[in-house]
């Protein structure tokens, strides 16, 4: 079985070495050295050139190197074979960790202290116990569930919101469009870990932000498309949102003229929350390759109607 | 039994209410309404006016509202009765939490991203697993041990340093002057939670900082007197220390002209890491008051020779 690797954001040599350990029977080819296209039955890719996958006549499965596949699905040349999103334990740990970091940062008023430092102000905000801070985690898939669980373990009051109801120990669950208001009302901090789909695009708009506790904070670790950026800027201007941490933006890299860059109440990180690593991702891909060869069902297959 | 409360930094009414619940038999008087001084057998104080405690002829014990008592011990009018430092479970939790926040912030390169944001730079630093970050916790008393344990539970590689050897699960322990080099050598992040004593004053100097991994980070949650501030500024200038988070400074509030205020590689918080709360601190004081009345040994008594 030959697999084609194609990504500008991942290290092909490291992935080939990791796959050689986990699935030595698989021949890994690194694009553009495709060789005989007819021998390629699987592809491990991130945003391949449009048409590349369609040019592989024997292709039976596509494995995404990323967890969010909305851009892969938007490619009209994507073949109809199963598309699997990346589920990598180190990616999950990394995402939950960064969610905890940003929630702790807000819970301990570090954004306020950073503003005070710039203004030369030494003023204490009395610390509160973690249970006094209500965090709403949007999305309870692999990544959202891990983040909600870690936040719960730390003692925060955690609500979760997902498309379909999902029970997680210690998390107050809400589901669907009808459950959004209850998930958000009066929350101190919202953490977005949703997939980007037709339903979730633009979800975080003026009406959404108005539901948070006045002076609430937003952490977006998912996709820039979830946020209506002008609405967020308005909510920051009125103080309804006291601070936002954005790991993702509508356009990445963020254009130099964008107001987020110099906004005193926005923290930007360059889509850095979570990456799949060859050491931990390759075993997951190898398992799916064995399933492909033996005809067993693949894991983490994207439901194209749902979008994730 | 009458107890005198005196502090400018703590809420006397909340403490009196909490003590009324926990120790209803105790009469709490709030300075300066001292009443008959001869009836006062205990004092719950933070930095009382010099001479106040010495003026109480029946005083049998002094309870500090703070964990660090070096300023109380420096008062030559402090009576020779037992002095107990505050050990409050919420204070311990709060301190461990803030240590985790700042370690996560460095581990996830948020200081770098904040600098990049100011410079308009969008550049990823690949996340690393927590075990790849070595944290040295200085001080393994009530607060340091809790911080080290929480960091260990999160997956960091944790070393501890204390005056006398102390075993903590998952923490590589080092002790005494001889053990300091091994505790520090090549550490990514140092978290200071030491008591301030004659031995620890000025510990964090040029030689100390030179032992960290180049580009290491410092988190001081203890006392400003632990750090030789000009040496830290030099180490920040050379890059030996990439960033420092200081919750405490030699002079507090930090004077307006101090270079830390506007230093791009210093995060200042206004002695905000941890506070004793009446709800959680009062039961601890009440327990000691019962011990005092029944003649049993008090808990958390300061060893004046040792300084904590």
Overall average residue pLDDT of chain A:
97
Query: Count of helical segments of chain A?
Result: 9
Q: Could you tell me how far the N terminus lies from the C terminus of chain A, measured between alpha carbons in angstroms?
A: 27 Å
**Sheet of most strands of chain A:** 7 strands, parallel
* SSE sequence of chain A, one letter per element: EHEEEHEHHEHEEHEHEHEEH
Low-pLDDT segments of chain A: none
Report the structural category of chain A: alpha/beta
Largest sheet, spatial ordering of strands of chain A:
8-7-6-9-10-11-12
Folded structure, characterized:
2 copies of one chain form a homodimer. Chain A has 308 residues and is of the alpha/beta class. Helices cover 32% and strands 19% of the residues of chain A. The first copy, chain A, contains 9 helices and 12 strands. Chain A has a 7-stranded parallel beta sheet. In chain A, strands 2-1-3-4-5 form a 5-stranded parallel beta sheet, covered by helices on one side. The mean pLDDT of chain A is 97. At the A-B interface, α3 and α4 of A face α3 and α4 of B.
Task: Give the helix/strand layout.
Two copies of one chain form a homodimer.
Chain A: E1 2-7, H1 12-22, E2 27-30, E3 40-46, E4 61-64, H2 70-73, E5 83-84, H3 89-107, H4 110-119, E6 134-138, H5 142-154, E7 157-162, E8 171-175, H6 176-184, E9 189-192, H7 206-210, E10 216-220, H8 229-238, E11 241-246, E12 266-268, H9 278-294
Helix pairs in contact in A: 1-9, 3-5
Question: Any descriptors?
Answer:
seven-stranded parallel β-sheet, alpha/beta, homodimer, 19% strand, five-stranded parallel β-sheet, 308 residues, 9 helices
